[in-house]
Amino acid sequence: MSISTQFILNDQDIQTNFHPGILILDFLRQNEKLMGTKEGCREGDCGACTVIIGELANGKVTYKPVTSCLMPLGELHGKHLVTIEGLNLPELSPVQEAIVEEGATQCGFCTPGIVVSLTASLMEKGSEISRDSVMRALSGHLCRCTGYRSLIASETHLLNAVDNATGTDALLEKGFLPGYFRKIAERLNKIPSSSKPDGVVEDFLIAGGTDLYIQENKAIPDSPVTILNLRQELKEITRKNGYISVGALTSFEEFASHSDILEIIPEIEEYMFLIASWQIRNRATIGGNIINASPIGDMTILLLAMNAHLVLQNGIGTRTVPLTSFYKGYKQLDKTNSEVLTEILIPVPAKKTRIHFDKVSKRKCLDIASVNLAVRVEEEDGFIEEVGLAAGGIAPIPLHLKKTCSFLKGQIVSREIMEDAIAVMQEEISPITDIRGSREYKRLLARQLVIKSFIRLFPKRLSAEEFYEKY
User: Fold this and answer.
1) Number of helices followed by number of strands (H, E) in the chain
2) Structural domain that includes position 432
3) How many domains does the chain have?
4) Which residues contact 423 (CB under 8 A, 6 or more apart)?
5) C-alpha gyration radius of the chain
6) Considering the domain boundaries, does residue 206 fall inside one?
7) Which helix (H) or strand (E) holds 352?
């Protein structure tokens, strides 16, 4: 399978016919001998292999950190790939200096990826240096030498060094990035658009790759692939006919930062911090989360509660399917092999709608949920007019709690009603014991998440103290 991929690696123009499905991590270490990008978990969990990807849009290059162990080489066409080596300066950069000053490196294995992510956070134009921004950048990194406190303390040094002048242009002006960054937009603009050869039968359709590469890492480099993320038309978010249309290839981070999504789910950024790290949110796609059909898919659970619909296309025509009826059994979908998910339609909620998402997992920022839950309630003076409730980890599929919703609709929010609703829910769910917890533990989590969510949504009608007395 020979497809030419052209991109810029640090300051070097690259044109390669390597298989488009091989991992960027392997290309860097095995072909380019750039060993600063470390190979750790190969599952996107540790952050040691983090790189920065620059993409040209409207004449400007925007940069974001990703884990190179989950991104195919073919997706780099027309982009700028920055490794730790590509950030080197004659002297230490502000990020490196802050880490040195705080003694925030010990064995050093994880340090290159951490430097890359913290640098990427400074490259965001208009971003503010704060404890939250440092925590966001570090959310995808593991440091088994327990250097987290020192890393978080580096915020003060970054503030003093950069003086909140963030963005690529500002960093270049201060000499905090190599000068070659100034010409990247011009150079990327000269790379021709990618083209897909005719007559290829794809074994693998690769979107974000955050699950596929974990399952099929060995098979992909020897198989025909299609790099879906080269289809920019499937990344758009627009409003039409009372819906917000989300392209299936929209990443979690693009979804959470879009103005239309922030308007209907104001706390979406807070929820995203529970769902995945910044580096993974830059890779994982909304459509991939849905099609993967994991019983604990975080975004799927939220979209189930939002009563989303799916647009499926087979090359001849399209059809629309409610997400609430899409899952027929474990990994069984209302979808033919010839159909591709292209669009997710989210009904624009009424202004009196309240939404909440929550999740329990062993690792806060980047882990599979033991149980997750989303609630959408349209209410007037405590009277529930419409409700959407979905949960993961408590059934073989992402579960729309239809019976519980039917019970709650038309009720006045109170402790007694919530207790009765929880009883209905317990009859509706069927958790099993696995590595993420026992059946009994998951039932407990589901109950507690319902209570927590409705207390959060209705603080004047419910209080934690009411439930503590009984539970």
Assistant:
1) 18, 18
2) 354-468
3) 3
4) none
5) 23
6) no
7) none
CB atoms within 10 A of CB 15: 10
In a domain, 211, yes or no: no
Task: For residues 319 and 358, state if they share a domain.
Answer: no
Task: Say which residue the tokens 């409610």 belong to.
Answer: 322
Q: Whose structure tokens read 């789910």?
A: 265
Tokens of 256: 């959470």
Residue 20: closest CA among 3, 41, 40, 38: 3
**Together in a domain, 397 and 450:** yes
Length of the chain: 471
Rounded to the nearest angstrom, the gap between the alpha carbon of residue 291 and the centroid of all alpha carbons in its chain is 15
Instruction: Please indicate, yes or no, if residue 80 is contained in any of the structural domains.
Output: yes
Q: Which residue has the tokens 């890393």?
A: 151
The model's pLDDT over 112-127, given as tens digits with 9 standing for 90+, comes to 999 999 999 999 988 8
Determine the 3-state secondary structure of 128 from DSSP: coil
Q: Which residues contact 136 (CB under 8 A, 6 or more apart)?
A: 121, 273, 278
Tokens of 224: 């025909």
Asked if 305 contacts 389 with a C-beta cutoff of 8 angstroms, the reply is yes
Residue 45: phi, psi to the nearest 5?
A: -95, -30
Region at 301 (left for phi over 0; alpha for psi -120 to 50; beta for the rest): alpha
Asked if 336 and 358 sit in the same domain, the reply is no
The pTM is what? 0.93
Q: How many C-beta atoms surround the C-beta of residue 111 within 10 A?
A: 23
Give Dmax (Cα) for the chain.
68
Report pLDDT digits (tens) over 402-426: 999 999 999 999 999 999 999 999 9
Place of tokens 């989210």: 346
Q: Do 94 and 136 fall within a single domain? A: yes
pLDDT for residue 27: 98
Burial class (CB in 10 A: 0-12, 13-18, 19+), 338: exposed
As to burial, measured by CB atoms within 10 angstroms (0-12 exposed, 13-18 middle, 19+ buried), residue 191 is middle
pLDDT at 200 over 60: no
- Supply the CATH number for residue 281's domain: 3.30.465.10
